[in-house]
């Protein structure tokens, strides 16, 4: 079968056989299909920094417990530095038996450090090792995501401040309802993103637990100190139960939910911008750098970022759903199925990170058409609630006022007459009430806390600014890593 496309029945290159981590127990070489199907190097190689970091801590733990000599420890650490340089500069040569990043790093350390290198895996399993790597990686990536969320919130805040008293229609059921300040609308998304940040912060507490020292599933007969390596790696906590440490992925599911919710928030924002940039709405125009053209239709300017923010939310939902399905039937503790935790996680992190950058740029550079917004919001019927409330203040029960104004709106629509004129001529309303129908009046009357008018929005801007300080202080907290 040699040379066939399927490779069925082929064994991997026998000269590599001795290099599998488990070769002692095996007489035969692993089949090529086994390696092809079960490898994870193609996607877990991006964990190399964390794998090396985890190994450094493990080596220091081995020296501390006198399981290896200080000299041996040093030569492994030097070898790890060399592996790190090779990875960084893309000089690292992977070989056929490197089934995952852990195997690759250990193999190379052993090539460099010889006998000392062969002691690196003492008391450790790839089960606690890969769980450690992903937790280290995720902690860092969640901060990067958080910083990008803060960046988008800043864009929304800046645009809200710049919008001043500009207003647009607010919608319910996608029907014009009441006018709202543009600043109010933009900040609505800002607060939702704040909850996304709160969720990330909460999830990190559960991600920030070291599983290193759990071994394959049951701990070790060797005098290892999991609390020591946890501290070395900057984890806030250490596992309580070795089966749980290698046999759980709920922290990843939780992070994936947070990312999914973020993706959905971006998707909803995107959907709005798809609408706002249509000729029909005309509320916003995209900067050339954040729009695309059509290969056929010369006049087109398309909101692809907004559309893909919407489209990619679907796949991120799939990432979450896929992992949950992977997890649901697994008994304790580690099962190889868990290798499937990485691709959905990496994918969701990548898509959300890029989406945040693209949407931020798109909103920061777009031009609002404030006249279009205003004229859409100044439809006479947008003041209907103000008219009803005007009556309420004068003692008319709200239900009655609602019916009275509703009838006037219907009459205006049926007869094609102006609501303002009808209100002016109405016995119970009259010319004073008709003032409420004038352009720009309604939005200024939204005076309650958290409401859409200039007075509460000014207070909201202050509160958002203060909240953003806190979110940003948290997101920037871990200064060691750059976004
Ligand atoms: N690549 C594997 C993973 O990501 C490493 C663990 C393999 N463990 C094992 N006992 N085969 O899960």
Shape: elongated
Radius of gyration from CA coordinates: 30 Å
Q: Approximately what portion of the residues adopt beta-strand conformation?
A: under 5%
Main sheet? Answer: 2 strands, antiparallel
Gap between N and C termini: 48 Å
Count of helical stretches: 20
How do the strands and helices of this protein lay out in sequence?
Blueprint: H1 14-17, H2 32-38, H3 41-44, H4 48-64, H5 70-88, H6 101-113, H7 126-163, E1 167-172, E2 175-181, H8 182-207, E3 209-210, H9 226-232, E4 237-238, H10 242-247, H11 250-276, E5 284-285, H12 304-327, H13 342-365, E6 367-368, H14 370-377, H15 384-393, H16 398-415, H17 419-425, H18 431-434, H19 441-444, H20 454-476
Parallel strand pairs: 3-4
Antiparallel strand pairs: 1-2, 5-6
Helix pairs in contact: 4-5, 4-7, 4-9, 5-6, 7-8, 7-13, 7-20, 8-11, 8-20, 11-12, 11-13, 12-13, 15-16
Give an account of the 3D structure.
This protein has 483 residues and is mainly α. Helices cover 60% and strands 4% of the residues. It is built from 20 helices and 6 strands. The chain has helices spanning 14-17, 32-38, 41-44, 48-64, 70-88, 101-113, 126-163, 182-207, 226-232, 242-247, 250-276, 304-327, 342-365, 370-377, 384-393, 398-415, 419-425, 431-434, 441-444, 454-476; strands at residues 167-172, 175-181, 209-210, 237-238, 284-285, 367-368. A two-stranded antiparallel sheet has the order 1-2. It has a two-stranded parallel ribbon with strand order 3-4. A two-stranded antiparallel sheet has the order 5-6. Strand 3, helix 9 (226-232) and strand 4 (237-238) form a beta-alpha-beta unit. Helix 7 (126-163) runs antiparallel to helix 20 (454-476). The longest helix has 38 residues, at 126-163. The protein is elongated. Residues 1-14 and 479-483 have low confidence and may be disordered. It binds arginine. The site of arginine has 9 residues, from helix 7.
């Amino acid at each position: 079968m040699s040379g066939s496309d399927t490779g069925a029945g082929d064994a991997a290159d026998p000269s590599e056989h001795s290099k599998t981590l488990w070769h002692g127990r095996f007489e035969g070489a692993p089949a090529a299909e086994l390696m092809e199907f079960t490898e994870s190097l193609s996607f877990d190689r991006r964990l190399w920094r964390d794998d090396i970091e985890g190994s450094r801590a493990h080596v220091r733990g081995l020296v501390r417990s006198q399981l290896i000599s200080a000299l041996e420890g040093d030569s492994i650490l030097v070898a790890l530095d060399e592996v790190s340089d090779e990875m960084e500069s893309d000089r690292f040569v992977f070989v056929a038996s490197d089934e995952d990043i852990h195997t690759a790093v250990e193999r190379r350390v052993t090539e460099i450090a010889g006998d000392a290198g062969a002691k690196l895996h003492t008391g450790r399993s790839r089960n606690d090792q890969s769980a450690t790597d992903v937790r280290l990686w995720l902690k860092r990536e969640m901060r990067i995501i958080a910083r990008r969320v803060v960046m988008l919130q800043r864009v929304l805040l800046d645009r809200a401040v710049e919008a001043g008293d500009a207003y647009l229609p607010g919608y319910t059921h996608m029907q014009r309802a009441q006018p709202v300040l543009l600043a109010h609308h933009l900040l609505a998304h800002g607060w939702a993103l704040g909850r996304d940040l709160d969720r990330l912060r909460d999830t990190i507490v559960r991600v920030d637990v070291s599983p290193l020292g759990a071994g394959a599933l049951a701990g070790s007969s060797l005098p290892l100190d999991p609390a020591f390596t946890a501290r070395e790696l900057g984890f806030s906590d250490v596992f309580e139960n070795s089966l749980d440490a290698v046999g759980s992925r709920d922290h990843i599911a939780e992070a994936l939910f947070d990312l999914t919710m973020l993706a959905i928030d971006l998707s909803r924002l995107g959907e709005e911008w798809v609408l706002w940039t249509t000729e029909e709405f005309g509320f916003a125009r995209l900067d050339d750098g954040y729009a695309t053209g059509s290969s056929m239709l010369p006049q087109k300017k398309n909101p692809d970022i907004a559309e893909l923010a919407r489209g990619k939310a679907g796949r991120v939902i799939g990432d979450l759903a896929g992992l949950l399905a992977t997890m649901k039937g697994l008994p304790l503790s580690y099962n190889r199925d868990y290798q499937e935790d990485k691709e959905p996680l990496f994918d969701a992190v990548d898509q959300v990170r890029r989406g945040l950058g693209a949407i931020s740029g798109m909103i920061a550079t777009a031009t609002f058409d404030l006249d279009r917004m205003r004229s859409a919001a100044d439809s006479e019927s947008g003041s209907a609630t103000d008219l009803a409330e005007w009556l309420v203040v004068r003692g008319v029960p709200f239900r009655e006022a609602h019916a009275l104004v509703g009838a006037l709106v219907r009459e205006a629509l049926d007869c094609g007459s102006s609501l303002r004129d009808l209100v002016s001529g109405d016995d119970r309303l009259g010319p004073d009430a008709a003032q409420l129908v004038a352009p720009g009046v309604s939005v200024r009357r939204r005076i309650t806390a958290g409401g859409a008018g200039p007075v509460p929005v000014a207070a909201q801007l202050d509160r958002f600014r203060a909240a953003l300080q806190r979110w940003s202080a948290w997101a920037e907290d871990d200064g060691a890593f750059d976004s």
